[in-house]
């Protein structure tokens, strides 16, 4: 029964991301496909969840209280998103547009390639479930953190490996709300955090990864669905059959439940995708808004994003300035704005490592 519950949670999660992403795209006037919309919704979800969760974690609140408050906030968000989508989807709305007959019908070859791509992605999802065999210190610690939080109705108060109470919050983990998202769902549904991590978190990582690859390829190939489908299918095949430690298969198929897997396969590729768009048109505020959302949510998804995301953004901007040979104040201002959230997290984390900031539990 828990497996069927996981399937339901996975489908519901994707629908929530799609609705939130659709509303964000409409408000920012972004013309995004369904895969990109789901990814945007994923980052929007964690950007807001981080605010709620961190307030609860840092003040030592109970896990069940986080679940109750977040359910109320999420209901309000979904209600507002539904209103936005309904208003803008009416005839004459800002997103209303006519689709040509050729686009509606599509080509047979493109449909076949897209079907093949979908089958390949489903096989990769199955591989993420069937090939999951990575059981080590990381696995025990992360799962232990979630199961202990559920059992004790606390958040980061007990050590995930030993189960002993901590004297203070370990901000290396507590500054990210990723695992507490699984924990509150586990407490609410009664489904083990271990099962949720394997059948929901791991599969969702595969789906989001391919959604980013698909969106990036559509941008590079100028919306050529046939070339995009071939590229995504090839990347799936390489991931499944190239199971070597130094490849992405390790952190996608075998360790997709971990926050760092989301950083490597979802967050960083999404940042690169948006930076590619910014490079093509650095004056497009819509792309900067999308990049800012991903940057804000990056630490919530994974603490590994703490330095990697701002480093990517700064390197791209420096390269852009060197190539274009034109210093743009607006570009620098937007860059600072995008890296500021991670810089603030970095300052807090650095203060904790030096002993300047200790939060007792």
Entry summary:
The chain has 361 residues and is mainly α. It has helices at residues 2-28, 34-58, 63-89, 101-105, 108-130, 137-152, 171-174, 178-189, 193-220, 225-241, 249-254, 259-280, 285-301, 305-324, 329-353.
List keywords for this structure.
361 residues, mainly alpha, 15 helices
Globally, the shape reads globular
Structural class: mainly alpha
Q: What is the terminal-to-terminal distance? A: 36 Å
Low-confidence stretches: 94-101
Beta-strand segment tally: 0
Largest sheet: none
Q: Return Rg in Å.
A: 21 Å
**Individual helix count:** 15
Helix content: over 70%
Mean pLDDT: 87
Tell me the fraction of residues in β-strands, as a range.
Answer: under 5%
Order of helices and strands: HHHHHHHHHHHHHHH
């Amino acid at each position: 029964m828990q497996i069927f519950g996981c399937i339901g949670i996975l489908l519901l999660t994707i629908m929530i991301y799609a609705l939130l992403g659709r509303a964000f795209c409409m408000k920012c006037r972004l013309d995004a496909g369904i895969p990109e919309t789901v990814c945007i919704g994923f980052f929007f979800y964690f950007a807001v969840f981080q605010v709620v969760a961190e307030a609860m974690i840092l003040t030592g609140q109970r896990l069940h209280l986080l679940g109750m408050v977040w359910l109320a906030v999420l209901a309000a968000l979904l209600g507002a998103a539904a209103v936005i989508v309904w208003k803008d989807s009416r005839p004459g709305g800002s997103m209303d547009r006519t689709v040509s007959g050729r686009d509606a019908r599509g080509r047979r070859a493109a449909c076949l390639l897209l079907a093949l791509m979908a089958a390949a992605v489903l096989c990769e999802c199955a591989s993420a479930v069937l090939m999951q065999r990575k059981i080590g210190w990381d696995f025990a610690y992360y799962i232990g953190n979630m199961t202990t939080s559920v059992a004790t109705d606390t958040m980061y108060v007990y050590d995930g490996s030993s189960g002993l109470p901590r004297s203070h919050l370990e901000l290396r983990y507590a500054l990210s709300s990723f695992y507490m998202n699984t924990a509150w769902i586990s407490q609410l549904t009664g489904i083990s955090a271990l099962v949720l991590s394997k059948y929901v978190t791991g599969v969702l990582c595969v789906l989001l990864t391919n959604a980013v690859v698909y969106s990036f390829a559509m941008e590079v190939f100028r919306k050529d669905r046939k070339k995009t489908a071939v590229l995504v299918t090839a990347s799936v095949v390489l991931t499944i059959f190239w199971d070597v430690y130094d490849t992405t298969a390790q952190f996608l198929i075998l360790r997709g439940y971990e926050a760092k897997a989301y950083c490597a396969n979802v967050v960083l590729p999404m940042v690169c995708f948006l930076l590619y768009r910014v490079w093509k048109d650095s004056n497009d505020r819509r792309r900067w808004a999308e990049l800012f959302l991903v940057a804000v949510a990056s630490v919530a998804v994974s603490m590994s994003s703490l330095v990697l995301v701002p480093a990517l953004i700064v390197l791209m901007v420096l390269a852009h300035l060197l190539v274009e040979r034109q210093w743009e104040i607006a570009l620098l201002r937007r860059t600072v704005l995008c890296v500021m959230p991670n810089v603030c997290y970095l300052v807090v984390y650095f203060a904790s490592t030096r002993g300047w900031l200790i939060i007792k539990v």
